[in-house]
Amino acid sequence: MQYQLGQAGARMAWECRRLAARGLALAGWAGVAAAVCAVLAAGAWHSRQQAAVQLAQLQARQQDKPPVPLVQVPVDDARSRLHAFDSALKPVQEAPQVVEDLLALAAAEGLVLQRGQYRLQDDSAGSFTRYRLSLPVVGTAPAVNNFVAAALRRHRMLALEALQYKRQQSDSLQLETRMEWVLLVQAPAGGVR
After folding, report:
1. Dihedral over alpha carbons 153, 156, 162, 168 (to 10 degrees)
2. Residue 149 in contact with residue 108, Cβ under 8 Å?
3. Which of 17, 21, 144, 184 fits 157 for a cystine, CB–CB 3.0-4.6 Å?
4. Alpha helices in 65-191 (DSSP H)
5. Dihedral angle of Cα 115, 120, 123, 127, to the nearest 10 degrees
């Protein structure tokens, strides 16, 4: 489209030079104005024709495509997924057993556990409880990675929120690692959604 407008401008400049060269004898200023208007009108008409063709092509392409249906999750499916989530949650009384299992997994990888912190955090909107664990350990990077992978495979409702490494000396293989975990468990009151 820009190319045609460039041609129209070049055509108009050529007409102006041609008429000026003839000394405006025959056409005069009115003729020059008429020639300019004719060139501009021809360019506008050509641009509108191209826009109409492009619009028709776009509409034809869209008519060939079937309409995309809106995806709505059936209420029953949402309820079944919510029920599946609820049934996967362990009772809050089993949270210390999960912690003991994590400690055993860490020991199996040769990690030395320093003092950990544990706290419950209720989620009243979700009707479940988050059991937050902060576990600082000392060991090698492969041992930490193996421990994290084993813990996540074994406990479905366990999530790793943060992992921070710290090394005392640059050539040391031992890392001080702080892990922040969240274990989702049933709410103590057993509230209904």
Report:
1. -30
2. no
3. 184
4. 75-88, 95-108, 141-154
5. 130
Please report how many Cα atoms fall inside a 13 Å half-sphere around the Cα of residue 165, on the Cβ side: 14
Nearest one of 122, 144, 119 to 191, comparing CA atoms = 122
Dump pLDDT digits (tens) for 154-173.
998 999 999 998 888 888 88
Q: What is the pLDDT of residue 52?
A: 78
Q: Which amino acid is at 175?
A: L
HSE-CB at 143 with a 13 A cutoff on CA atoms is 18
Two tokens, residue 64:
């060939």
Rounded distance, CA 155 to CA 93, Å? 15
User: Between the CA of residue 48 and those of 5, 12, 43, 52, 156, what are the distances in Å?
Assistant: 12, 19, 9, 6, 62
- pLDDT tens per residue, range 49-95: 787 777 777 777 666 666 556 666 566 777 888 888 888 888 888 88
Q: Which residues contact 90 (CB under 8 A, 6 or more apart)?
A: 98, 157, 185, 186
Structure tokens at 59: 């509409």
pLDDT in tens, 8-42: 677 777 776 776 666 555 556 666 666 666 767 77
* Residue 107 predicted with pLDDT over 90: yes
β-pairing, 117-123 vs 128-139, is: antiparallel
